[in-house]
Amino acid sequence: MSLRTLLPLLLLSVFPGVALGSEAEHHALAQTGDWRAILCVVIFVVSYIVVMTEEFHYLNKSKPVILAAGCIWLVIGSAAKDYGISEELLHEEVVYILSEFASLFLFLLVSMTYINTLNERNVFGFIRTSLVRLGLGYRTLFWVTGGITFFFSAIADNLVSALLMGTVIMAVDKQNLRFVQVSCVNIVLSANCGGAFSPFGDITTLMVWQAGKMEFFEFFRLFLPSLATYLLPAIIMTFAVPKGRPETTDERTEMKRGSMCIGFLFLCTIALAVTFEQVFHLPPYLGMMTGLSLLMIFTYYVRMSSIKPMDQRLDIYGEVSRAQWDTLLFFFGITFAVGGLSFLGYMAQASSAMYGELGASKANIIIGALSAIVDNIPVMFAILQMEPEMDHFQWLLVTLTVGVGGSLLSIGSAAGVGLMGVAREKYTFFSHLKWSPVIALGYAAGIGVHFLLRGVL
Asked: In angstroms, rounded to a whole number, what is the distance separating the alpha carbons of residues 454 and 373?
């Protein structure tokens, strides 16, 4: 393997986003050796180092990547004439990347708004207190919280599922360090595995679906591999869960008016997104936005028809404002920064190095493991923009590996990072790390089941 081929491979291995960008050969330029193109790579790498060290300096991850995106396109714009790029071509490329971001942005904004509204109506608080009041034993709670997280993540965001069950664990017995640590590892694993077999379960699966790589129902072929990835480590970790049961509590939380209807509307909105895409061949975000209108109308009805102050204060635009804007803006920065690097031609080299020389199966397994170090969102975005020639089996494989690979480390997924905040000083990087070999067994088992199913089917 020559140095010219090895360089993009190393860049992709450490910072997958640097080698990719707008879709396939949309308007790729062969300018990777130019000093200005190399400067763009340096800008991205520096910004991503800042992102990866967020827990030390507390600078939100969106800020450095947005700055990097602006700087990269400033360099491209200043060198446009030297590269032979017309104003029309430059404008067309930027608008194309914007359309890619906008489709994902609108979809996620609606989903986040629904989740925030359900939280405001005390739906998640009701689930938490109901579980705590059951008086279950530690090992039963271990499996109940893991099971709920696994299936709930397939419908809602895996981060929300992990945070909800994390608060349950802390409410049950936050003083029992052994129980908290192993349960948090279990929740992170189940959240990522549950999100891997549904288009709505994880941002990465949503990206694959919206890119048109697979039909909606094809994702459910990953159910058994995802289940195997979760079950094997969970069975082993069960033996580390202490016996006995925690003290019960009488804490109660009542759901507010309209909560069940909002949950039903959320399911209807998901159905609308699928219908728009599968039946009418329209972008799924149109179905999501239609569902958002239903939520807006219903919350207006709740606010106007109720005499309770808690209902009259229900403000749907307030719930929109409480969306995870750092995450949404992070997508903007990643999309445009990576898009600029692809525009310069790095995608072609990286695609040849990873998929041309290693082969699709090896490349997908390695990339999945790397998502434990680098956030899985830019990893998946990178793969999508490379557009390697893969059949549906391989697209399912990379969806599985990138989705569950982040479980190997606590910092490898949003669920792990979020749970470290909920169980601060109890669930840590190193408390998760000691279970990484066991989780790696599950990672291998899930891949094995996926290959086994190909032979059976």
From this structure: 29
Distances in whole angstroms, Cα of residue 420 to Cα of each of 185, 195, 400: 10, 19, 24
Q: What is the DSSP string of 373-442?
A: TS-HHHHHHHHHHH-----HHHHHHHHHHHHHHGGGSGGGSHHHHHHHHHTTTTS-HHHHHTTHHHHHHH
pLDDT of amino acid 31 = 67
228, HSE (Cβ side, Cα atoms, 13 Å) = 18
| CA distances, 253 to each of 12, 51, 126, 127 (Å) | 48, 37, 5, 8
**Nearest-angstrom CA–CA distance, 406 and 412:** 4
Cα–Cα nearest to 200, from 324, 325, 115: 115
> How far apart are alpha carbons 166 and 160 in whole angstroms?
10
% of the chain beyond a pLDDT of 70 = 91
Contact between residue 325 and residue 60 where contact means Cβ atoms under 8 Å apart? no
Domain ranges of the chain: 3-456
Q: What was the pLDDT predicted at 35? A: 87
331 token code pair: 């997508």
Dump pLDDT digits (tens) for 33-49: 788 889 999 999 899 88
Residue 179 is encoded by which pair of tokens? 């129980």
Phi-psi region of 281 (alpha: psi -120 to 50; beta: other; left: phi over 0): left
What does the alpha-carbon distance between residue 13 and residue 304 come to, in Å, rounded to a whole number?
55
Return the pLDDT at 84: 81
Q: Crossing angle of helices 87-120/259-278, nearest 10°? A: 150
Residue with tokens 């049961």: 245
Cα-based distances in Å from 107 to 124, 200, 207, 210, 290: 22, 10, 10, 10, 11
- Cα 382 from chain centre: 14
Write out pLDDT tens, residues 132-186. Answer: 888 888 999 999 999 999 998 988 778 778 888 888 888 888 888 899 999 999 9
At 337-387, the pLDDT tens digits run 888 888 887 766 666 677 877 888 999 999 898 888 777 777 787 788 777
